[in-house]
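Input/output pair, single chain:
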Amino acid sequence: MDFNNFQNLCKDKVVDYFNERVEKTDGVKITKDDVFVVWYCKTLQNAKALLSTNVSDGMYYELTYNGDKKELYLDAYKKWENKKFDVE
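Output:
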């Protein structure tokens, strides 16, 4: 699977995941235009991408494509905290 196909598939899955779970009273729905790829890597027939949306909910999504099995996995994460550490 090439990058463009993988990216489009991932964005579709994030849109579906978000829109199925968003609080109904928020009245928010997203489209593929609201989703962006933060990081992407392809190794042999496998691929992984980290995606986020322009919704300020602290969520990000990790999608992994297993090329041997032709399966796509989605993990959804919430950012709880960002701490700075000084390192010499």
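The radius of gyration is 15 Å. The chain has one helix and four strands.
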